[in-house]
């Protein structure tokens, strides 16, 4: 593997090296499989993501070559629980930085399972065009038909009722349900997050956000991520919340989304309905995965 970031040039060896990165505390192990393909099992991903036995991360990111002309990289995303997913906003900013630095470009195109995303490096921040949201019930997807996805009826039983109700649902490459609350800290997201993530209304499960509107240009959120649990930040959740807030006329199109790990700037552009997410990236360190992880019995 060879990582050609300035100051991070590595010789080609058989050892699998990684970078550790984060976007507002949502952390990633990044592997470069462009020189040597890497196929990872659920168990290997889970081991790498495990904070006690492994390296520890919310998502594992694998860089590959994209088969498409003019595209700079393919980004494969795994949740800590081992499953592959299609979108990750914070990782897109981190990978945008890595690849822009590597290629000496300001703007790069990242191929993901959710589509092609353009990322632009501007000093300490990266802006990503996250594309257009999918808002129809079967695009979220939901188990039942709803005409209006700005607020759906959801039977949630006794877990925190009647305070939590009628979430907005949005798909930005992955499914999100947003519960609007008056006080973010009055809810035990760690307790009911897993139940809502697995609610039968969400056949592909869902990322669950609590959102408190502070002003027409400011929302505070906390997120229970599908397949990863509570995180310091979730970029796609911020995108979904920004879209849902505009649809409910709670905010304007440009909004600051505050997460436990820090702030993201979001714009749901009026001209083409694309979502533009801007925020920081951080390179935390590097390491080598243990060879035993790739021995036959461990795979
Ligand atoms: N942390 C990410 C989202 C990662 C995927 C998500 N947990 C899912 O299962 O859809 C982000 O920054 O968007």
Automatic annotation (TrEMBL):
GO cellular component, one term: cytosol
InterPro entries: DAP_epimerase_DapF
Keyword vocabulary terms for this entry: Amino-acid biosynthesis, Cytoplasm, Isomerase, Lysine biosynthesis
Domain of life of the native organism: Bacteria
Residue positions binding substrate: 26, 59, 79, 89-90, 174, 207, 225-226, 235-236
Catalytic residues identified in the record: 88, 234
Any one Gene Ontology BP term: lysine biosynthetic process via diaminopimelate
Residues carrying the site annotation Could be important to modulate the pK values of the two catalytic cysteine residues: 176, 225
EC number: 5.1.1.7
Subcellular location(s) of the protein: Cytoplasm
Signal listed as a keyword: no
Major localisation: cytoplasm
Name of the top EC class for this enzyme: isomerase
Pathway in which this enzyme or protein is active: Amino-acid biosynthesis; L-lysine biosynthesis via DAP pathway; DL-2,6-diaminopimelate from LL-2,6-diaminopimelate: step 1/1
Subunit structure: Homodimer.
Cross-referenced PANTHER family: DIAMINOPIMELATE EPIMERASE, DIAMINOPIMELATE EPIMERASE, CHLOROPLASTIC
HAMAP family noted in UniProt: DAP_epimerase
Job of this protein: Catalyzes the stereoinversion of LL-2,6-diaminopimelate (L,L-DAP) to meso-diaminopimelate (meso-DAP), a precursor of L-lysine and an essential component of the bacterial peptidoglycan.
Family listed: Belongs to the diaminopimelate epimerase family.
This protein's name: Diaminopimelate epimerase
Organism in which the protein naturally occurs: Maritalea myrionectae
